[in-house]
Design goal:
Layout: H1 2-14, E1 15-17, E2 23-25, H2 30-57, H3 66-89, H4 92-122, H5 128-163, H6 178-185
Antiparallel strand pairs: 1-2
């Protein structure tokens, strides 16, 4: 029964009738045919570009001096190449291809990060997010401790001045550290 289900499913999705009436199985998918159509449209753009460049290159005046004629050929070729590249890069096929490429690159990045995270997890190694979280917690703890020490120092100075005792020299202001700046930004 399972053997009959596979050919039936295969014939339902991939069967095509040839021009002479025989049944054949189409193994090409739609994305391949779409890619060939896009390649044909790119080829058409390039053929038009080359033909326009050739027309521009040989569209010179016959009484022009040879160096001037070469400058005209060069400027005509650059102008047509610039126009063709502008047309090519603004074509829907190119923009769609670039969009797909960017989406694939970002999804590959996400998949590789997820894979490496799972590998670290399986090896019971800390991940980058774990290390970043620990560093941020240590920075916050350090900032709270230094702030509390400053409060205690100011309370001691206030108590000494209220009792009339000779106040000890004011404690030096603490130096700003890189961790203080990072804790404020976080």
């Amino acid at each position: 029964m399972a053997r009959r289900a596979i050919p039936a499913a295969r014939s339902a999705c991939c069967r095509a009738v040839s021009h002479n009436g025989h049944i054949r199985y189409n193994t090409m998918n739609d994305s391949f045919s779409n890619a060939s159509q896009e390649a044909a449209s790119f080829q058409k753009i390039w053929l038009e570009t080359i033909s326009k460049t050739m027309l521009a290159a040989f569209n010179v005046t016959p009484d022009a001096a040879p160096p001037d004629m070469l400058r005209q050929i060069r400027s005509g070729m650059f102008q047509k190449l610039g126009e063709s590249w502008n047309e090519f890069m603004r074509s829907p096929q190119f923009l769609e291809g670039m969009r797909q490429w960017m989406e694939n690159a970002s999804s590959f990045r996400r998949m590789s990060n997820d894979f490496l995270g799972r590998v670290r997890n399986e090896l019971q190694a800390p991940s980058r997010t774990d290390i970043d979280t620990i560093m941020l917690s240590v920075r916050h703890m350090e900032k709270r401790l230094l702030d509390r020490l400053d409060e205690l120092a100011s309370q001691i100075i206030d108590q000494q001045s209220a009792s009339g005792a000779q106040p000890s020299p004011k404690p030096r202001a603490r130096r700003k550290r890189k961790t203080d700046k990072a804790a404020k930004s976080a």
